[in-house]
Amino acid sequence: MNAAVDVKSFGKTAVLMGGKSAEREVSLMSGAGVLKALQSKGVDAHAFDPAERDLSELKKKGFKRCFIALHGRFGEDGTVQGALELLGIPYTGSGVMASAISIDKVMTKRVWLAEGIPTPRFLLLRRGAYEQKQVIAVPDDLGLPVIVKPAREGSSIGVAKVKGYSEMKEAVDAAAALDADVLCEQFIAGDEVTCPVLGTGDQARALPVIRIVAPEGNYDYQNKYFTDDTKYLVPCGLPEGEEAAIQEIVLKAYRVLGCRGWGRIDVMIDGTTRKPSLLEINTSPGMTGHSLVPMSARAAGIGYEELCLQLLASASLDQETARP
User: Fold this and answer.
1) Is 282 annotated as contributing to ligand binding?
2) What structural domains does the chain harbor?
């Protein structure tokens, strides 16, 4: 971003943080970091928690744009984006449709598969519509271990790695308590990586790939946010050519979903074939001290404060991008 940009032109800015989702705690940490960064750059930025204040206040209080630091439902799923469209207040990140599709891991997979983008095999169980014999039979199709997760949660909430048939029921019940749709996914043994993207359309670019090495391969909620035991390798140290190939497929996956502004795609690389399989996309990634987009951006020479400014500068509305 041009250093000469007048931050005053952004106007009064709301950092949307907290919210009602299971990721509220992480969102508050992300929002606090973004708020401090924007204020340090001279932006007239203020915290705004939609769980405690009605969104209509944004218009009444004269806010001119929003930095969405919400994660999960009611923040990353197209709902708050739709409200901001109606209010006419530009916001960071993807629009209504891309957000709604991307929050749903099953819908994301269906779009990717239609476009020839590799993703692990899966089965969908709908709460109340499956029998226990179907649950127990999942590993017959997908093998063991199998990953069980809610279709529309983030931050590894409700995710279980099932190693035996006897563990299936408990894992599915736990995921079903969080979401009506339970995703059972083939486990890919190999390297776990993630790749952030900045920008929109042809201008979008992939940032450096990060390789994640978690304790015992368990990259769960605790190891994501509250321990220092997980190792994040950037440069990622992958074999020559692999990082570029992952960046290329991640960019395609981002674009076919219609994402804009920024995002982050998680990928597993098969340890035997070295083929990548895309797991999911985050359209409002974390911005905490443990978060991966700032880490990757730093490796590309973009500091945290500059990243926040770039993202705020990219705030827009669907209705703007749809005009001829």
Assistant:
1) yes
2) 7-92 (3.40.50.20), 101-118+188-311 (3.30.470.20), 122-186 (3.30.1490.20)
